[in-house]
């Protein structure tokens, strides 16, 4: 009798099919004779996607043992070999295998390697989790051992091994730190000049940093015209000197913009030369027929340009991947319960049965919801292909030749050998890293994505307006404290009145508040009588400070909510790769945070009664009803203090909170509470740490420098805050990336390019604000005169007076320089390149320093994915396997009513 260890082929499937339920295991050579009874049984088993455990040890007795795991898991788990609906699993060999290593074992061809998620799920092992952590964290391998990078000595170039985006982020923060260090040193002199003034009376400011603003510049003496003119000369001289210092800071910013733009391009070039990735050798191919499945033909077609190492066909999922997330979770739970059953003596059969029923219901639902829900992954329609060439110059030849074909298409002259399958013209382009691709989004059409983007922008505007209203309400409530103007002009309070007299004549709460407001805090705290009289004042001041603190924290909390919402909206847009998704998040989050942090506080306190044109805009009468129509001294005391306090909080939040609280907490969880994680997969996930959010970090940096630099012309202390914040952010993120966060995906340079393009905007906006601030007549009067009552009056400065003053001319020159620089950098980029020959030389040097794909394969594996096969991607591995498992189950449900030989738990054929 012939041995049963032969080739088992389902008669219902095509001979060349690579589908999941028709794949086979070659256990021996083809026998000359075949047992007819055995072939019928094998065909029946294949039709319901249940393959028996065929052991080569049974060659002598020619027996086959068929095990039905679904009906009696208790029996099957106690056997040496577990037979599942997806293949053969040797429990003795694989029960302790790490879930991370399973991704490479699920390949097309061998049925024995195709296991369900239930089979792959193992109990948590701390040692394996430590290995997984080392593999998925930023580590260097020395003599086969994982070693941590030094926090102090690790350069940004070394971080560039894990993506140009990561290296550019740290370079961006570092270079901004150097820039603001220089600007802070320049700002020391304006801070000294402001602090030396006497514009704010003693006790007028609630915080010491208010004396470092221009609000404390020398005030104008209004006793006589002669004294006022003498003061005016000194004030104008100070204004010019301060504007010159601010002009130098603007020039430093423009120099930084030019220098860093060139420097970042060099970083990208060096990163491309020094760090090898799979994308360096890969191309993306569109136009492949959707029913095409022969990768050999595609490989043969493109090998006319050079040797092709890998061909992968991406599929159209039609929403299947997202649907199968739930099934994957249920399968992992089922696998855990089955693994526990081996230890508990099968006392959890009830839980196993419930999970099996849930999975079966899901399979029925998915089959009804999708017309092709029973199709396995390799049977789905083809969307596009990814090819990896062995040599860089072969890839370059392919791109060049296919680009020439595209030009030929316009004149309908294409060589016949360039057609694929004799009729298809394929579109080839450069592709991104495998870990950067969002596979479920590749099928989205351009118009669908445009519609989604429009909806996302609309919803983002709605959310932004809602956040503006919330912050507006928080900032607008100021506990109704009387202003200095109200106290002196309306209530006729005399600050120099003796306490005994004031106690008798100022009896109302507002009057006592105003009188105490002009007294020093030392007198209020030291004198018991004054303290008792000013009790209402102290209570209102403390309440107001608490409101400011809560509103500042409220801004940070609202920004956190916006970040979460905008992440969801960016996912809704369904862009093709993570870099584009991160770019969308960065732009939306930055704009929202900047408006909420820097502009809302200005709008809340603004009063545009003097600007008649503003009232043509609807609802402006309800919005711009604040106290200040210009940047007065009181504006810096009330609004400026709150702004500075918010930026001080931004020094610590949220990165320092992560370092001081979340990072130690996660370490404690790994050491003390690792037993709470049931499966190896969940334990691995907890050990690997969270993902570094590069988009939100970039938006945080932009918000920091925009807000601080916007008002820094008259509040120079903000430059020092920005310097400290950038220093803290750089080292905190470096510690977290090297010790806390998992290895990030290989993101490209697009986030950095977008951040650079925002720099000219802040230079221009800063200069516009500086023109208005240095033209404020309440702080920097330019002309005085006597009225009919012999009183000295200050002339109001018009917009033209502000523009054509010395500070105005200096800032206009900065605006023109920043605009011209932006045009040169972003619209005429070839100007910065020495010549075209230099570019070609860089490409040639890159090809010479990099080896072939096969030679660099081990290096590529250390820093990211080395292949475009979706099963090698840990983010999609479980989903694809769950999709295939579900397809097999649905196929078995469809054939369950057909007549077939009965299967028992254990049956022997000879």
From TrEMBL:
Coiled coil: none annotated. GO terms for molecular function: calcium-activated cation channel activity; nucleic acid binding. It comes from the Eukaryota. The chain crosses the membrane at residues 240-258, 455-474, 541-562, 583-604, 643-668, 708-731, 803-828. SUPFAM superfamilies: RNA-binding domain, RBD. One of its GO terms (cellular component) is plasma membrane. Keywords: Membrane, Transmembrane, Transmembrane helix. Residues 1-20, 88-122 are annotated as: Disordered. InterPro entries: Csc1-like (IPR045122), RBD_domain_sf (IPR035979). Residues 9-20 have a biased composition (Polar residues). This is CSC1/OSCA1-like cytosolic domain-containing protein. It comes from Stentor coeruleus.
